[in-house]
Amino acid sequence: MATDVAVPALGESITEGTLAQWLKKPGDAVAADEPIATLETDKVSVDVPSPTAGVLSETLVNEGDTVAVGAVIARIDEKASAGAEAPAASSPAKDAADATTNPAGAGENPQLRGTEHAPEPAPNGDGEAITTLSPAVRRAVLEHHVDPSKIKGTGKDGRLTKDDVLAAAQAQQGGPVHEPEARAPAPQPSAAATPAPQPQAKTQAGERREERVKMTRLRQTIAHRLKEAQNTAALLTTFNDVDMSAVIEARAKYKDLFEKKHGIRLGFMGFFVKAVALAAKDVPSVNARIEGDEIVYHDYLDVSVAVSAPKGLVVPVIRNADRMSFAEIEKTIADFGKRAKEGTLTVDDMTGGTFTISNGGVFGSLLSTPIINPPQSAVLGMHRIEERPVVKDGQIVARPMMYLALSYDHRLVDGREAVTFLVRVKEAIEDPTRLLIDL
């Protein structure tokens, strides 16, 4: 009996996604709840689990196709055994027939074919099966003439990544590999044509190339929302700087005790989240939003924390951050960072948010003008810490300084309020005792 595999609910207001990758191919055995495909939505990548144990008998959509919630994308045969639906073993006669009816596939590396016709994968060095290669990985394998069955994947579930292929090619050639840009697609050969030669790994010196890569759904959404913010809000940014000496000293003094008690490191973000919570009490407009001709004020603080993920920037939400302890904040942020790298953040993790903190300093940024995350009205930008000469008590001294930037919607937040908010954050960071006694 065949069981349909449908696109699961993807979250509120999300009605469709893009099938990014098949994790299984026809003929593969699957367990109940085992992921068989990856879907990319406007916000996150999600795995599509198998509803039952059996064998993947057929896939109904291709990688890159847009699929609606509830659409059937594959079928599972509950009674079949592994390999029952796999392509039959080839014979010389069948190979000859295939070469005539489908010459474009002649000479093709079977491990690089599409999911519909890929044979059982060969094991890698650890005895694990090689999963279906993504288009970018297949192209890199062809370009550099490496054997994917001999490469250990570092991606999710041991899948090969483009970097794995490039590293293997470098080891094979004994020198650095320069990834060539994509060539224009060659015309399809006629039935009588001979197979085209494999592309060469090296290119002529001075050759100029271009590569066109379709924007991911997440990247399209980021672009749309950022442009929407610029078109709708009256954006303005105000700056200040903060002496990080007190926070650095507090971390150095208590980091070991903190980690021993709570099992997590004490970072800078916890101090800034607490400082923002304190400052928002004095300047509630930065934690508000415009809805029609009304201003909506929140008696809670849900902080969106910008986190770098492999496919772009994501902003999971620390809910009720104003009521959380340092340890709770740090544990939540660490969990977000881990799951962002693994691609396991959910839509619910990134829904809502009343204020955003973006830490460009982890990448070395000295100063920036961040863009608000609609419908929020403000975003705080943190930057790198560096020693700079400042005047203290009439003396020029070196201090670890950080620039802060507050971008805000001037329709809702006045300049006086923005400056006041930044000053409150600065005061709390330079004297963390204020965080404990609510000053």
Task: Describe the overall structure.
It is a single chain. The protein is of the alpha+beta class. Among the domains are: 2-77, OB fold (Dihydrolipoamide Acetyltransferase, E2P) (Beta Barrel); 217-437, Chloramphenicol acetyltransferase-like domain (Chloramphenicol Acetyltransferase, 2-Layer Sandwich). Helix content is 27%, strand content 23%. It contains nine helices and 19 strands. The chain has helices spanning 92-101, 135-144, 162-173, 217-232, 245-262, 268-282, 326-342, 415-430, 433-437, and strands at residues 2-6, 16-22, 29-30, 35-40, 45-49, 54-59, 66-68, 72-77, 235-243, 288-291, 294-297, 303-305, 307-309, 312-314, 317-318, 355-359, 378-382, 386-392, 395-409. Strands 9, 12, 15, 16, 17, 18 and 19 form a seven-stranded mixed sheet that branches. Helix 2 (135-144) runs parallel beside helix 3 and helix 6 packs across helix 8 (415-430). The radius of gyration is 27 Å and the shape is globular. Mean pLDDT is 79; it is low at 82-131 and 179-196.
Descriptive tags:
single chain, 439 residues, alpha+beta, OB fold (Dihydrolipoamide Acetyltransferase, E2P), Chloramphenicol Acetyltransferase, 4-stranded antiparallel sheet, 9 helices, 19 strands, globular
Question: Mind sketching the topology for me?
Answer:
Blueprint: E1 2-6, E2 16-22, E3 29-30, E4 35-40, E5 45-49, E6 54-59, E7 66-68, E8 72-77, H1 92-101, H2 135-144, H3 162-173, H4 217-232, E9 235-243, H5 245-262, H6 268-282, E10 288-291, E11 294-297, E12 303-305, E13 307-309, E14 312-314, E15 317-318, H7 326-342, E16 355-359, E17 378-382, E18 386-392, E19 395-409, H8 415-430, H9 433-437
Parallel strand pairs: 12-16, 16-17
Antiparallel strand pairs: 1-8, 2-4, 2-7, 3-6, 4-5, 6-8, 9-19, 10-11, 12-15, 13-14, 17-19, 18-19
